[in-house]
C-alpha cells in the first residue's frame, strides 16, 4: 500500500469465516472484493458480514453469471443485501470477458453468519 501511496486502505489476511465474527472487522468495510474463488451464494455468506450498511460487495465472475446470480438472490437478501448490478469488464486474461457483480448492503447480517469454515461450501444457502 505504501508503494501505491494509498491512504485509508486496510488489507486483511484472514479467513472470512473468522473475520466475519471479529468485532474489529464485522460490518466495518466500505467494500469487500472477492476473486472468482467460489459460487456467488457462498461469496455473499463469506463477504457480506464484513461490509457496513451502505457498502458494497464486488465479486469477480465469469462472462455469463446470470444463473449463479439468480441462485444467490435469496441468500443475499437473507444476509442483508441485494444484487445491484452485473458489469461486464474487459480482460486480457486467457479466460476472456469477466463480470463484476455488485451487491449493496442494506441491513445488518444476522450474527449466525458466516457459518464455520467449510460449511458454506458444503451446504450453500438457498
UniProtKB/TrEMBL annotation:
<keyword id="KW-0808">Transferase</keyword>
<dbReference type="GO" id="GO:0005829">
    <property type="term" value="C:cytosol"/>
</dbReference>
<dbReference type="InterPro" id="IPR003682">
    <property type="entry name" value="rRNA_ssu_MeTfrase_G"/>
</dbReference>
<dbReference type="InterPro" id="IPR029063">
    <property type="entry name" value="SAM-dependent_MTases_sf"/>
</dbReference>
<feature type="compositionally biased region" description="Basic residues">
    <location>
        <begin position="106"/>
        <end position="115"/>
    </location>
</feature>
<keyword id="KW-0963">Cytoplasm</keyword>
<feature type="region of interest" description="Disordered">
    <location>
        <begin position="106"/>
        <end position="126"/>
    </location>
</feature>
<dbReference type="GO" id="GO:0070043">
    <property type="term" value="F:rRNA (guanine-N7-)-methyltransferase activity"/>
</dbReference>
<protein>
    <recommendedName>
        <fullName>Ribosomal RNA small subunit methyltransferase G</fullName>
    </recommendedName>
</protein>
<keyword id="KW-0698">rRNA processing</keyword>
<dbReference type="Pfam" id="PF02527">
    <property type="entry name" value="GidB"/>
</dbReference>
Amino acid at each position: 500500500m505504501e508503494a501505491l501511496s494509498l491512504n485509508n486502505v486496510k488489507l486483511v489476511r484472514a479467513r472470512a469465516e473468522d473475520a466475519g465474527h471479529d468485532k474489529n472487522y464485522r460490518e466495518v468495510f466500505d467494500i469487500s472484493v472477492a476473486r472468482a474463488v467460489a459460487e456467488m451464494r457462498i461469496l455473499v455468506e463469506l463477504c457480506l458480514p464484513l461490509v457496513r450498511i451502505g457498502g458494497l460487495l464486488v465479486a469477480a465472475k465469469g462472462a455469463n453469471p446470470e444463473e449463479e446470480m439468480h441462485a444467490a438472490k435469496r441468500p443475499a437478501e437473507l444476509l442483508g443485501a441485494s444484487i445491484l448490478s452485473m458489469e461486464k469488464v474487459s480482460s486480457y486474461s486467457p479466460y476472456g470477458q469477466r463480470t463484476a457483480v455488485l451487491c449493496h448492503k442494506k441491513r445488518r447480517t444476522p450474527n449466525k453468519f458466516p457459518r464455520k469454515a467449510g460449511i458454506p461450501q458444503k451446504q450453500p444457502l438457498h
